[in-house]
C-alpha cells in the first residue's frame, strides 16, 4: 500500500522510479484507451502540515473504491490524471498524522485541486494551517530562552513505557534527568521545586501520580499527552508573566477538541490504556469538547524490574475540556483534570515493620474556567477562575496513619494584551491565590507503645501578584526590546517583592540573532515550611538573578545552531544547616532531629549550552546538544561550600526521528549525564561510605541511556491502527540512582547508603486505534 501501483493514475515521477519502461508503455496505452472511451476528470493537490504549511512528502493518497493510489513527491504533490466522474472520497494517511477523508463530486472534464491539511496525532484536527513566525518559535516572544516541543516530538519522546509528556521535556537541550522512575527534572543546577509548571496559565503544585510523603518514589504526570496543544520551556530569564519560581518555567497548554468531526482514539501499551474522544458542539460548530481517561498497570512491570517497593503504584486519571464561542468577541472554556494514584502492599503485610508503608492514596483535582474577550484585533483580555485540590494518606501494616496531608488553592487570574502600532505590545495582569495546607508525619515504637509526631503543620495565606511589560519592534523587526516588572506579596510573611525583567534581541543579518536577558525572581516558601515545627513565618522568599546571552545562526529555513551562556545568582535559599551528620574537626557531629530551616544559603549556577536542531516533517528531525554547568552553594551558618545537589558538569541530549515510509517512523533518543552528587557529608573508601567534613564530595557514576522506537501505521478507509515498539536502555547500561541515607555507626562513622538500579534493557509495545 505504500508504493505507487502500476496504474495510469500513479504520478509520473513515482512511476518512473518504480515501474519498468515496458510496463509504463502498456499503462499509457490503457490510459489513452480509457480517455477516448469515456470523458474523465483530473484530481490533484498538495498535502501540507497543519502547523506551518510545510509540504509533506511520502504521504499515501487514495481515492476509495477506485484502486487509485499514489505517494506524494518531495513537494507534497499528488495527481490522478484520469478519474471517472461522480462521487469520490479522498483518503490521506501517513504515520504520525491524523487520518483525513474528504468527500467530493467530480464533473466530466473537471480538474479538481485540493490543499490537504494534515494535523499531527497529538494536535486537534483542523481545516486550516496555523502559521507561526518559524519552525522554532513559541506563541509568545517575551522570554529570551525558549524551547518548544512540537506535537510529534512530544509523543515520540514521551516513551511507550510511561506515555508521559514530561518525559519528552527531559530530552530537551540543557535539561538533566538521571532518573528513569520520575518525570521531574532539574534545569541548570536547580531542582524541580524551583521550576514552575503552568497548565493553561495556572501554576500547579504537585500534578504527579506518586507516593506522597515518601522520599524515595517515582512520579508520572497526571495529564495525558494526547490532549496537549504545546509545551514550552523557559530555561533562563523568563518573562514577568510568571511568578513564584526562581529557576525556570514549563508552560503547558491543553488543546481544544476538533470542530471538524467527532473522533475517537483508543490506546493500549504494556503500562497503561487510555481512551480519548472529541468533537464539535452544535450544527454551527461554535464549540468543541474533548475528554480522556487513562488507567495504569505500570506497577506490574515496576514490581519486576525495581528494588524500591514505593515505585510500584497504580493510577487512574481523567480530563476534559469544553470550549464555546458566545460570539465573535466572547469565548468560554472549562477544563477539568482529576487523578488518583495508590500503592497496596497488603500481600507482604507479615514482613513489614510498624513504620513501613503498606497502603497509600493520593488524589489530585483541578478545575479551570476561562473567559476570553476580544473586542477588536488589537486587544485580548482573559479571566480565569481555578480550584486546585490535593489529598494524600499513607498507612502502616496496622492501618495507623504514617503521613497525610491536604493542600488546596483558589485562584483568580486576569491578563490582557494590547497590540499597538508597528506590532508593539503591552501585556498586563494580576492574580490572587488563596492557599491552605496541613499535614503530619508520625513515628511509632513498641515496648512500650508510643507515637511521636515528627512534624505537624497547618496554615493558610493569600498571595497577590501583578505584572506589566511592554515589547517594542524597531529597525524593521531586527531589534526587539522587552521590559517588565512584577509585584508580589504574601499575607503570612508580610513580605513584598518587586522583580524587574528585560531582554533584547538583535538580528544583524536575516540568519543571525543575538539575545540578551536579565531578570530578578522571587519564590515564597511552601506553607509546610512556614508553619512546620522546624520552620517559621519569618522565613524570607528565595531570590534569584538571571543573566543570559544567546547566539543563534540559522543554517537554512528549518535548521539552526544555537549557543546560550547563563549565570544565575541564588540567595536566601532554604536549607537546614545542621540537619545532616558529618565530621567537624575530626569528630562526629550528631544532628538534632528538629534542626531549624533557615534562609542561610546562597550560590550560583553558570555554564553554557550548545545545540544543533533541525525541524522538518519530511527529513531527519531532532537535535544534538551538549551542556556544561557548574552549580555551587555556600551556607553562612555552617560555613561550608559545596556543589549543589543537582550540579552536573556534562550533559548530552540527542533525539533523531525520520519518517522512512508513509507508514513507518523511526526515532532514537540518547541521554548522557556525568553524574549528580550523593547529597550529604560522605567519602568513599574501598567500596564503603563514611561520614566526612565536605558535603557532596562523592558523585554517582555517569548516567547513560539509549532508547529506540518505531511507529508503524495501518490505514483503513474507516480507521487507522498504529503500532508502537520501543526498546528502553538499548545497551543494557547499569544506571543507579541515590535512594536513601539509612543511618551511620556512631563509633566508626560508617554510613549506610542505598541505591536503586533503574531500567535494564526493556522492550515495550503499544497500539493506538483512531476512528
What is the arithmetic mean of pLDDT? 88
CATH architecture of the largest domain: Beta Barrel
Radius of gyration: 29 Å
How much of the sequence is in beta strands?
over 45%
Biggest beta-sheet profile: 22 strands, antiparallel, barrel
Low-confidence stretches: 1-19, 28-37
Structural class: mainly beta
The tally of beta strands, per DSSP, is: 45
Q: CATH homologous superfamily name of the largest domain?
A: TonB-dependent receptor, beta-barrel domain
**Count of DSSP helices?**
6
Q: Can you tell me the number of structural domains?
A: 2
CATH topology of the largest domain: Maltoporin, Chain A
The end-to-end distance, rounded to whole angstroms, is: 20 Å
Overall shape:
globular
Offer a few descriptive terms:
single chain; 771 residues; mainly beta; Immunoglobulin-like; Maltoporin, Chain A; 2 domains; 22-stranded antiparallel barrel; 5-stranded mixed β-sheet; 6 helices; 6% helix; globular; disordered N terminus
Give the helix/strand layout.
Blueprint lengths: L11 H7 L2 H17 L3 E9 L10 E4 L4 E4 L5 E7 L2 E8 L6 E7 L4 E8 L26 E5 L1 H7 L7 H5 L5 E2 L9 E2 L7 E5 L2 E2 L4 E2 L10 E2 L6 E9 L11 E7 L8 E7 L2 E10 L5 E10 L1 H8 L8 E12 L4 E15 L14 E18 L2 E17 L5 E20 L3 E22 L4 E25 L4 E12 L4 E15 L2 E12 L3 H4 L11 E15 L2 E17 L6 E3 L2 E3 L8 E17 L6 E15 L4 E4 L6 E12 L2 E10 L8 E4 L2 E4 L11 E13 L4 E9 L7 E9 L5 E8 L4 E9 L1
Parallel strand pairs: 1-7, 11-16
Antiparallel strand pairs: 1-4, 2-3, 2-5, 5-6, 8-15, 9-10, 11-12, 13-14, 15-16, 17-18, 17-45, 18-19, 19-20, 20-21, 21-22, 22-23, 23-24, 24-25, 25-26, 26-27, 27-28, 28-29, 29-30, 30-31, 31-34, 32-33, 34-35, 35-36, 35-37, 37-38, 38-41, 39-40, 40-44, 41-42, 42-45, 43-44
Amino acid at each position: 500500500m505504500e508504493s505507487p501501483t502500476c496504474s495510469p493514475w500513479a504520478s509520473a515521477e513515482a512511476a518512473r522510479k518504480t515501474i519498468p519502461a515496458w510496463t509504463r508503455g502498456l499503462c499509457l496505452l490503457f490510459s489513452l484507451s480509457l480517455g477516448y472511451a469515456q470523458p474523465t476528470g483530473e484530481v490533484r493537490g498538495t498535502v501540507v502540515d497543519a502547523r506551518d504549511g510545510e509540504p509533506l512528502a511520502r504521504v499515501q493518497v487514495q481515492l476509495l473504491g477506485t484502486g487509485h493510489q499514489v505517494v506524494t513527491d518531495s513537494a507534497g504533490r499528488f495527481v490522478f490524471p484520469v478519474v471517472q466522474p461522480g462521487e469520490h472520497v479522498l483518503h490521506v494517511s501517513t504515520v504520525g498524522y491524523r487520518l483525513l477523508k474528504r468527500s467530493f463530486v467530480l464533473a466530466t472534464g473537471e480538474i479538481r485541486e485540493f490543499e490537504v491539511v494534515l494535523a499531527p496525532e497529538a494536535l486537534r484536527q483542523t481545516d486550516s494551517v496555523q502559521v507561526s513566525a518559524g519552525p522554532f518559535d513559541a506563541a509568545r516572544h517575551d522570554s529570551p530562552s525558549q524551547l518548544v516541543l512540537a506535537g510529534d516530538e512530544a509523543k515520540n519522546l514521551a516513551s511507550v513505557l510511561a506515555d508521559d509528556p514530561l518525559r519528552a521535556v527531559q530530552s530537551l537541550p540543557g535539561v538533566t534527568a538521571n532518573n528513569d522512575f520520575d518525570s521531574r527534572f532539574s534545569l541548570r543546577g536547580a531542582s524541580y521545586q524551583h521550576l514552575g509548571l503552568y497548565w493553561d496559565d495556572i501554576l500547579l503544585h504537585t500534578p504527579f501520580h506518586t507516593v506522597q510523603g515518601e522520599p524515595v518514589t517515582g512520579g508520572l504526570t497526571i495529564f495525558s499527552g494526547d490532549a496537549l496543544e504545546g509545551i514550552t520551556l523557559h530555561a533562563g530569564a523568563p518573562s514577568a508573566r510568571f511568578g513564584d519560581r526562581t529557576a525556570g518555567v514549563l508552560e503547558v497548554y491543553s488543546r481544544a477538541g476538533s470542530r471538524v468531526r467527532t473522533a475517537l482514539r483508543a490506546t493500549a501499551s504494556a503500562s497503561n490504556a487510555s481512551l480519548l474522544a472529541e468533537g464539535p458542539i452544535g450544527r454551527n460548530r461554535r464549540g468543541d469538547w474533548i475528554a480522556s481517561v487513562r488507567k495504569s498497570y505500570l506497577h506490574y512491570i515496576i514490581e519486576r524490574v525495581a528494588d524500591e517497593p514505593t515505585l510500584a503504584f497504580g493510577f487512574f486519571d481523567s480530563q476534559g475540556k469544553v470550549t464555546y464561542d458566545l460570539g465573535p468577541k466572547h469565548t468560554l472554556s472549562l477544563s477539568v483534570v482529576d487523578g488518583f494514584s495508590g500503592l497496596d502492599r497488603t500481600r507482604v503485610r507479615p514482613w513489614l515493620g510498624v513504620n513501613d508503608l503498606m497502603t497509600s492514596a493520593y488524589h489530585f483535582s483541578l478545575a479551570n474556567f476561562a473567559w476570553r474577550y476580544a473586542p477588536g484585533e488589537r486587544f485580548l483580555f482573559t479571566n480565569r477562575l481555578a480550584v486546585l485540590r490535593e489529598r494524600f494518606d499513607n498507612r502502616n501494616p496496622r492501618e495507623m496513619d504514617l503521613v497525610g496531608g491536604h493542600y488546596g488553592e483558589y485562584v483568580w487570574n486576569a491578563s490582557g494584551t494590547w497590540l499597538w502600532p508597528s506590532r508593539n505590545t503591552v501585556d498586563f495582569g494580576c492574580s490572587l491565590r488563596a492557599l491552605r495546607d496541613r499535614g503530619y508525619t508520625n513515628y511509632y515504637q513498641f515496648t512500650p507503645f508510643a507515637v511521636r509526631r515528627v512534624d505537624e503543620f497547618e496554615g493558610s495565606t493569600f498571595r497577590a501578584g501583578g505584572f506589566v511589560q511592554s515589547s517594542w519592534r524597531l529597525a524593521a523587526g531586527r531589534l526587539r526590546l522587552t521590559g517588565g516588572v512584577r509585584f508580589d506579596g504574601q499575607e503570612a510573611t508580610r513580605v513584598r517583592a518587586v522583580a524587574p525583567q528585560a531582554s533584547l534581541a538583535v538580528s544583524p543579518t536575516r540568519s543571525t540573532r543575538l539575545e540578551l536577558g536579565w531578570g530578578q525572581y522571587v519564590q515564597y516558601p511552601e506553607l509546610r515550611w512556614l508553619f512546620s515545627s522546624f520552620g517559621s513565618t519569618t522565613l524570607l522568599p528565595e531570590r534569584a538573578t538571571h543573566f543570559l546571552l544567546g547566539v543563534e545562526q540559522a543554517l537554512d529555513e528549518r535548521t539552526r545552531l544555537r549557543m546560550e551562556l547563563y549565570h544565575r545568582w541564588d540567595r536566601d535559599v532554604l536549607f537546614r544547616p545542621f540537619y545532616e551528620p558529618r565530621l567537624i574537626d575530626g569528630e562526629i557531629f550528631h544532628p538534632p532531629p528538629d534542626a531549624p530551616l533557615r534562609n542561610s544559603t546562597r550560590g550560583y549556577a553558570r555554564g553554557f549550552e550548545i545545540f544543533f536542531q533541525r525541524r522538518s516533517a519530511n527529513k531527519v528531525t531532532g537535535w544534538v546538544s551538549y551542556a556544561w554547568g557548574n552549580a555551587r552553594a555556600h551556607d553562612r551558618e555552617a560555613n561550608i561550600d559545596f556543589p549543589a545537589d543537582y550540579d552536573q558538569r556534562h550533559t548530552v541530549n540527542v533525539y533523531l526521528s525520520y519518517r522512512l515510509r508513509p507508514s513507518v517512523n523511526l526515532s532514537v533518543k540518547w541521554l548522557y549525564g556525568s553524574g549528580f552528587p550523593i547529597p550529604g557529608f560522605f567519602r568513599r573508601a574501598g567500596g564503603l561510605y563514611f561520614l566526612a567534613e565536605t558535603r557532596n564530595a562523592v558523585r554517582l557514576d555517569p548516567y547513560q541511556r539509549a532508547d529506540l522506537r518505531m511507529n508503524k501505521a495501518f490505514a483503513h478507509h474507516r480507521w487507522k491502527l498504529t503500532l508502537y515498539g520501543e526498546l528502553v536502555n538499548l545497551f543494557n547500561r547499569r544506571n543507579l540512582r541515590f535512594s536513601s541515607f539509612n543511618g551511620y555507626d556512631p563509633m566508626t562513622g560508617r554510613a549506610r547508603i542505598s541505591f536503586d538500579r533503574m531500567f535494564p534493557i526493556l522492550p515495550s509495545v503499544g497500539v493506538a486505534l483512531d476512528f
